[in-house]
Fold this protein.
Amino acid sequence: MTVEGNQKILRPSAARLLESMRDIGYSFESALADIVDNSVSAGASHIEIANDVHSESGAYLAVLDDGRGMSPDELTQAMQHGSRSPREVRDAGDLGRFGLGMKTASFSQCRRLTVVSRQGGQLAARCWDLDQVVQEDEWILNLLDDEEILRLPLVERIGEQGTLILWQRLDRLDALGDHPDQIYAALNQLFGLARPHLALTFHRFIAPEPGEGSTRVEMSINGAPIDAIDPFARLMTPRSESHDVEVIPMEHGEIRVQAFTLPHHQRLSREQLLALELGSSLVEKQGLYVYRAKRLISGGTWLGLARRAELTKLLRVRVDVPTSLDTEWSVDVRKSRVRLPSAIRARLRPLVEKMTESSRRPYTYRGTRQATGAGMPMWSR
């Protein structure tokens, strides 16, 4: 504590603050998605997620990418809590915001976070050990030497450039015991939830739509590819009916809104219907799907603009929000919640009303009976 006149500088306790930040609301799948954000922002074309039990350090989770990597100085800065201001202008494709995501997401699941990165032939590693921070009550970042780096799992798989993020000491892994089979069972259960979450959250990167200009990103879990889950049925047969794109200009960017009416359920196979129900039902998953830089933030809610109804269960509305409007939309640290600004709400409401009205056609106008010539058709008589 430093005293300057009638002012005091109070620095937070490293131990208490980091322990508290572990419980800001991350689920396993949302924490993992936050790590993948960093790989996508780094321009990776391949992202591999793996888990195993190391003979020395126990169970671990790894995210390995072939992005641009980081220099030693950049890596040190990236490991700092609050490494970037949320008010800082970010590139259009930068999925970060607060400079907290990688650290807070990791600590919500583990007590040891190690990041190894190679750029320009330089390999560097930095490590936060939560137990060490708690013991010393100090912001101690470990700079690993070459020997320590070589002992890390999967480090030999980093290419000419890229980054490896390691979660170790997975103290929130709900395993029945310490036997490897029990640990694998717990990990498999978590990844059973994580796979569809990643497939939906990053579907516009895994399977970009023609004309979007996105570079395809291959993702896998333990070698098994992650296939995109498209909530708008744009890449299946029969396809959804797309509405006109509406553009809402704002002071710091423009919002693009487009509605899609899904094919009637009688035209879909059982597998297609299950895929579009997104683990719930068509009624529950109708509504707005808000994307930030093409990454899904919030989906399957009307955000107070309409009510869920049986006649609008086929309507899904894609809302593309640029990173320049983060403050207005109150995107949170976990990038899983948004608040609809009143100015945008006023502009969206009439659009949603028009879209919901047109989406009723597959039910109310399934077809019309036509007869040629005079008289009444036999089947009508």
Summary: Confidence is low (pLDDT under 50) at residues 367-373. The longest strand covers residues 46-54. Residues 180-201 form the longest helix (22 residues).
